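Morning run. Coffee first, then this:
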Amino acid sequence: MGKKPSYLGLLNAIAFAEGEAAEYLGAWAAVTPDPDVRRALRTVCAREAEHSAAFTKRLDELGYEVIPKPSTDHVKRLRFAKSAKTDLEKLSKFGFERDPSLPDVFDKMFANHDIDVTTGALLGRYIAEERDTARLLHGLCRKLHRRSSAAAASSTAA
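And here it is:
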């Protein structure tokens, strides 16, 4: 085996965190009464699970394994996702009210010039899908805000 790649920690963090995200988003999808929210969450959950598998596979191809590094907030996120809080509260808590056009954590991922072509292609697809997820869930958040405003206006008019 050659020199240990400098980006193994990044691949490991993504593999593990995406698996955790798939778990809590799947739990949320199972309890939401809103079919629009459920549909969006199923899409995102599938992406997160696939990202976890793809980065786990890439680590394996490089000769390494995922080292479990559970998030200290994972249990809280899972409990919140399963809770009776509204979908809008959950979208807000998970950060999807944030404008997806602003700079994000992905902006500096390619600053490491040691990334090989295969890993770079995987990271590029991952980043594009994560940004699409942010746009999808931000749009859903805006839609739920509009629904909430319309319901409030209709109840005060009645």
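The helical segments are 8-31, 35-61, 74-82, 87-93, 117-157. Good start to the day.
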